[in-house]
Amino acid sequence: MQPFRFGPPARQLYGVYHAALGDATRASAVLLLNPYGQEAVRTQRMYRVLADRLARKGHHVLRFDYYGTGDAAGSDEEGDLEGWSQDVLAAQHELLRRSKCTRTLWLGARLGASLAVLASRSASPPPRGLVLWEPVLSGEQYLRELASSHVRALSESYSIVPPHLRDRSFPGEALGFAIGGSLRQQLRELDLPRQSAHLRDLPFALIDRPRATGASEYAASLAAEAHKATHIPLEHDFDWTSEEALNTALVPHEAVHLLATQVECLP
Amino acid sequence: MNEIAVTFGPDRRLSGTLTVPDTEMRPLGIVLLNAGVIHRIGPHRLNVKMARRLSEAGFASLRFDLSGQGDSRAADAGLPYREQSILDLQAAMDQLGQSCGLRHFAVVGICSGADHGLACALQDDRIQGLWMLDGYAYPTWKTQALLYWKSLARRGPLGSVGWLVAKAWTLPALAAQGLLRRRPQGDAISYGRPVPTVEEFSSQLEALVARGVRICMTYSGSLLNTYNYQGQFMDVFGRHPWAARIECHYTPHLDHTLTPLAAQEEACHRVVHWATQVGVPTTQVQSRRAA
């Protein structure tokens, strides 16, 4: 596990490289893409466990923080989808350089999965496959989810929510993170099914909860055109935004196992 | 401002980020660490935001992950959690000291991070300042009374009647189980943290104050059961001469993890202001560690 900073001086990113253990001659490279905000905080441990597990299976793995998130440079407000898509490409470049592999596989959760789809349009080389866990399909709906999660977080965190925080919206923030105007606008325009035409040429696995809104339709529409699409339902009680690590698993074993398996299974 | 990823400690297993100011550096380094299970960026990235604000004020800082947390590898020694945390904090001070030429430090900790900072300060006299959000709290009879009063006020008249009826309904069962005695110190918000007795905590604070450590204790609005009014700290410890030398704030508009951006901004402001008031010995005597 090697933590480091990379990227141009004006856009320094933070990454952790997990070199393949054992016989690295069969190694492939896997890029892990974070979800957004509190969801990224919530999944940090799971990604570390997943990366360790993949490294033990002979994969080189890079997990990293986009600009304006985590331990990377930049403020919350400076993060946006276009910039983060470029960060994905920069991270792939770094992973290829370190691993000496020729192709990468991308695995993303929530908005990280959406970024995998968006960034793969202009990736060179393109990823050899995508593993998408509960991608954000509609940015508009995601903004609504963030808003309601924010209100819920306040009610859970305060013993008594102060009057000035009750019954009001929080357009510039979500669960403790500032949302810049650019990101908000890009999320409003995010409609992943309409931005996924290029996936017909890409093997991918879509993991979602059974009966998740739009997921089956998304998978079906892609599968109609793509011959290498897999849709896997995963029932779990992992709360993406919870600050309380008390009631749901921090590292849900079944999810880690399934994600690692999909990395192994993709051609 | 420069941010540098560093690995340090035994076998370089600890991972952190140095934040070094562009301006002239103050002679006090700030150490930031995990809050509970959250990795070193802190709840809502607060440690990152705080480190940058401190940097603007001339403070170098190191935010880092304790052994086994975040991006730090687990320790091999098999020491108890608290002992290992103290060693990790000392390694962090060593690293910050070597990188920036500093000999004196302050620890900014939230929740369990506050506990670790306190424990380390008791063993390492390089620590000149402790800023603790939701550290150990000791309820009084007034805390209990206010807990019920605020609970009733929050529920309104009808809700209060229902709540009181429900409470009354459970009293016989609680009495049968012997659960109506005084609440044990510490509560669920401590996330299972073991809480020292009032006497132990008192003697710890006394020792630190005697050594000249500047201590700021801030209690959020998330501790209704254990800390819920201005002046509670003095009600518990006010009879001791050293208590008046400890800065203590009750901030019900801030929550335990500083969720609103305004709360984060205020916390950053408070920490920077406090850090500028932490005294550093002018004699550049090589610091010594307690055995």
TrEMBL record, chain A:
Q: Which InterPro entries match?
A: AB_hydrolase_fold, Hydrolase_4
Q: Which UniProt keywords apply?
A: Hydrolase
Q: Does the keyword Hydrolase apply?
A: yes
Query: What highest taxon heads this organism's lineage?
Result: Bacteria
State whether keyword Calcium applies.
Answer: no
For this protein, what is any one GO molecular function term?
A: hydrolase activity
Q: Which residues form the Serine aminopeptidase S33 domain?
A: 45-158
| Protein name (Swiss-Prot/TrEMBL) | Alpha/beta hydrolase
Q: What is the lineage of its organism?
A: Bacteria, Pseudomonadati, Pseudomonadota, Betaproteobacteria, Burkholderiales
TrEMBL record, chain B:
Q: Which residues form the AB hydrolase-1 domain?
A: 47-139
Q: Which Gene3D superfamilies match?
A: alpha/beta hydrolase
Q: Which Pfam families match?
A: Abhydrolase_1 (PF00561)
User: What is this protein's name?
Assistant: AB hydrolase-1 domain-containing protein
The organism of origin for this protein: Caldimonas aquatica
In the record, what lineage is assigned to the organism producing the protein?
Bacteria, Pseudomonadati, Pseudomonadota, Betaproteobacteria, Burkholderiales
